[in-house]
Sequence to fold (254 residues):
Amino acid sequence: MSTSTLRDQPGTSKESFEDFYSEVKEIEKRDSVLTPTQQIDRLLRPGSTYFNLNPFEVLQIEPEVEVADIKKRYRTLSILVHPDKNHDNQERAQMAFDIVARAWKILENDLTRKKCLEVYEEAKGRTDHMIAEKRKKLKKEGRSFEPIPEDDPVKYKHAIYVMVMKLFADMERRRQKLDQRDQEERKRKRETEIEEEERVKADREWQQNFEESRQSRVNSWHDFQSGAGKSKKTKKQKHMTGMMVPPKFKPESR
Fold:
């Protein structure tokens, strides 16, 4: 229904129209973040690498919602950012779509969703501990009557939100560190395997060359032995001949 039609209807006061119009604008303002372009920008904004570690943040839902509602939200959001729906921005839309799909994959699994919920529980516990420490400090200073920022429910919720982001970031850093350590270990293992393969190959080639040259060595030895025998025989014959030939007669000179 257009605003002009609503204004022209009998019995519709200016005040009721203004109320209606304000409500419509408020709804439009609230839902404007659901437009494809804005959702893509939200998912790819600066710092999104850490924001998107939290699947609940990606899908813009509270952690206590049911899986069925998470699935509905995923379908709605995935349609909004789908590359086929954003022809003028397909590359960024694909990146946003992958982020949404990854968030759903985490939350549809009972085990990984439970781990995410445990992050929220730990964040709340740490925030409550921090608040208790603040109050303890105020009491020690004789200022226990003074309020703290987290007394405001909005600021309390924001403090938990900040702690949640920090814990997800810490988890990601630990994961990256473990992945790096695992990659280095696999690299060292592979280098050791390559060295062993090269050693075995070299041993095999040496053994093969040794076997192939065996006959040549045998023949060389036989030739050496045969040559040595002939040499000894020749020397012996020469020696015997020298003994059998009488010395030449030399006439006596007067």
